[in-house]
Amino acid sequence: MADEVTVPLLPCASIDDTLAFYEALGFHTTYRQRRPNPYVVVQWEDLCLHFFELAGFDPEQSYGSCLVVTPDIEGMHRAFAAGLRAAYGRVPVSGRPRMTRPRARRNADGVTGFSIVDPGGNWVRVVHRGGASSAPPVGRLARALADAVVQADSRGDLRQAVRILDGALARPGAADDPVVHVEALVYRAELALGLDDPATAAELLDRAGRVVLTADEARRVASARENAAALAATLG
């Protein structure tokens, strides 16, 4: 047989809060009920998610997760980010809900991915279908950055990611590759914001902005600089 479809059913404490978030992302409601149990279905293009409300559910203890595979990961992220900015004035990077940026994942053979954590604590993990694997990171800081991304973006352990990056950034030679140095500083600033430490985030963004780059290096860190600008806007 062919054309089978698997649809995840994810728990939440409130279908109203969950629906509001997914509507901000750009989803629309295709089905909703209150009785005999609260249940809602949302859809964005061909992506369909079902949610059920569970009495006494604690999002902090949620293990809800699903994998979304898309051929246009950048386009999907741009659409979701635009919706979040329109709804919240920014793309939230801390607490619930939040969304990470597309990055190569060392624990996924270098394929690019990003994660959404919704109000119910569910992780929607988006992976690039057919995306080329990135080359393995070269250098101590690059490897530490890759490990930090796994800890924070994939596992949600921001503090462990901070420990990894801070140790690498403090070692001699951390600034030898200006491109990786900027990327690490900007990502560390994002982690600081995720941990509600805006002062550290501002200091790290300032350090990243003072790194001297050649024209080619500036081109290669364009994405990190875009992220830095977004983080700076969040800081106000």
Q: Care to describe what's here?
A:
With 236 residues, the chain is an alpha+beta fold. 44% of the residues lie in helices and 19% in strands. The protein has two domains: 9-125, Roll (2,3-Dihydroxybiphenyl 1,2-Dioxygenase, domain 1); 137-235, Serine Threonine Protein Phosphatase 5, Tetratricopeptide repeat, CATH 1.25.40. It has eight helices and nine strands. Strands 5, 6, 7, 8 and 9 form a five-stranded mixed sheet that branches. A four-stranded mixed sheet has the order 1-4-3-2, covered by helices on one side. A hairpin with a 2-residue loop joins strand 3 and strand 4 (47-53). Helix 3 packs antiparallel against helix 4, helix 4 (158-170) packs antiparallel against helix 5 and helix 5 (178-194) packs parallel to helix 8 (222-235). This is VOC family protein.
